[in-house]
Every structure is written in C-alpha cells, then in structure tokens.
Amino acid sequence: MFARTRLNLAPVQFSRIITRNNAVPKCIRRLNSTKSTTPPPPPPPRSPKGKILLFMGVLALGSTVAASLRSKAEPKSAVEPTAKQTVAFPEGEISVVFVLGGPGSGKGTQCNKLVKERGFIHLSAGDLLRAEQARQGSKYGELIAQCIKEGTIVPQEVTIALLEQAIKENHDAGARNFLVDGFPRKMDQAITFEEKIAKSAFTLFFECPEQVMLNRLLERGKTSGRTDDNIDSITKRFRTFVETSMPVVDYFDKQGKVVKLNCDQPVDSVSEQVKKALESRGI
Hints:
- A ribonucleoside 5'-phosphate binds at residues 130, 152-154, 182-185, 189, 226, 237.
- The chain has helices spanning 11-20, 26-37, 48-73, 107-118, 125-134, 141-150, 156-172, 187-196, 210-224, 231-254, 267-280; strands spanning 95-101, 121-124, 177-181, 202-207, 258-262.
- The chain is α/β, with parallel strands linked by helices.
- The termini are far apart.
- Residues 1-36 and 71-83 have low confidence and may be disordered.
C-alpha cells in the first residue's frame, strides 16, 4: 500500500502551475479569443422625436421669458380703451318721453297740446307706420297693413327704424324734446330702443276704463277713416295692449320711470296732470 502524500499548494501557486504548463483547456481559450475579437453591436438609432420635443420646450420657455421681460419694460397706458359706443344719442343729448295707454285713452289729444304749448316733437308710432304703408314702393306696406287690420304688433325692426330716422331728422333741425306715442308696445322694443337710440326720460301712462276707450274709438271711427276703428279691431287691440304693453309699463314702473294719469276726465283736467308730470321730471 502506498502512503498518500498530501500536497499543500496555495491557490496562487496552483494557478501559476496551470499557466506554466498550458493546462487551460483549448475550448476556453477559443471562447476568450472570440469575445476579444468580435466588435459589439452598434447601439440602436435614437429617434429624433425626443430632440424635437426638447427643442420646442426650450423655444417656448424662451418666448415666455422674453414676453415677461418685455411687459415689465413697456409702460402701461394711463387710459384703458373703452367699448365702442353704439347708442345714437348719448344720455342728456335729447329727452324722450314714452306715451303709453290703451287705444282711445287720449294720448294723441294730449300730445298735440304739448306740441302747441311746449314745442315738443310728437312722433306717433302708428302714424309713422301708416305713412310707411302708404309710401309708394315700400317693402313693408303689405305687412304693416295686415298687422294694423288684425290689431297685432308690427315687427320691431320696422318700427324702430322709422322712429330712429324721424328723431334724427328732427334733431338735425334743432329739436331736443320728443314724445314717442304708442311705443314701446313690447319688451323687446323697449330694450332695443334704449340700447340703440336713446334712454327714455320717463313714461306717461294714460289709465282709462276699457268701456270709455271703446266709446271714444267708435265715435272717432265715424270720421277718422281708419281701418282699425271698428269693433273687431278695437277688441283685438285691447287684448294685445294688456298682454304685451302692460309688462312694459311694469318694467319702467319698477325703475321709478312711470307717471300714471287718470284719463277718465275732461281733456283740460288731463292736461293739468300732464304738465305737473313734466315739471316734476324737470322737462
């Protein structure tokens, strides 16, 4: 039996022995050789999208900074621009008094007295519409005639255009105080007139019992020649006034711009009420 001899070689010494004696297997040497000679694959191409986004971000940041510096450097205007004024007559340039009341309440009679005694310009919406209806070549003539006959309201575009033209013509001639009779008859008319033409000073509201108005209109119809002075048209006009014009009176009354007159009285008595109303409003 041979005695076993134990070799106590340090790891470093063993490594040197293997190296000296070329003890590294050939397969391992070939693998190391392949790794050292084959170049690594090229990196994947970088998408230009990231560069574009980065460039746009830098550009936006630069624009913001430049705008901020520019706003600090430029002095602000002392006067800010105001909205364009569209009203035809600024407040205080003319005085417009709306005259409202049911048909036959005496509006026309009192307006004529103010024209003679105080120099007012009396613009009756009904008279303007009838004149337009009779004007040769008017494109609104047939429409106006139909509305008058049926006791309905003419579209506001027509009525307001006629009133604006009449006010401008009289204002150019030196007139300042206007009585607008029988208008506005609807809320849209009231709002549009005050937005585009002029603010009203106040409204004279002629209160009168319906039966009194009916009797007056039937009596007037004997000589007036008006197509709407008949029982059927009068009844429709009463209903239209209550449904559409009374909301206008209430609208201005809430603004403190209505003076109510008791018109179931003689003409002179109503005239005194009208004069006091104008004096109370400084007109």
